[in-house]
Amino acid sequence: RICEIVKKKYGVRNIKYTSAKKLIADYGQAIFALINEAYSQLYGYSPLTPRQINHYINMYLPVLRLNDISLIVDEAGTLVGVGIAIPSLSKALIKSRGKMLPFGWYHLIKALRGKNDTVDLMLVAVKPEYQSKGVNSLLFNDLIPCFRKNGYQYAESNPELELNHKVMSQWQYFETVQHKRRRAFKKA
Q1: What pLDDT does residue 130 have?
Q2: Which of 46, 82, 121, 150 is packed most tightly, with the most Cβ within 10 A?
């Protein structure tokens, strides 16, 4: 319901791709420009350089499952939101004992392409002018059916700042368990 209201009010919509090459050509640079813009206000974030962006585009976008990527664009086709998830590699890394050779690569490929019950929510980025307006509901409305179709039962989020209330508030509609906490302390 929220998703439909947001679509009408702000003129935004989801788009999906079936070709990684087309995704990279159309929105590869825009995804990372959006990440730089959306994360710029967060404590400790340093903007990605053009060289880093090109490296990440070539390294990550070709191997991602395209149905685990959700893009939100406005009426002009400008990227205003992105959500990227990947199948969890944790169990595969445990099975391979953290080694690629001789057969560790098999477990990683199986985790990426085969059945997996956990998905890692790598990043969610929304343009600052669209934040706190329900635009991220389009991401979840698009991705959750794909997660169910792929057999994911659990989702693991990346580290989030405790003071980033915008991100923390989006989990209030889900059954969540905080099972990890990272802290840094200063000593005089």
Answers
A1: 87
A2: 82
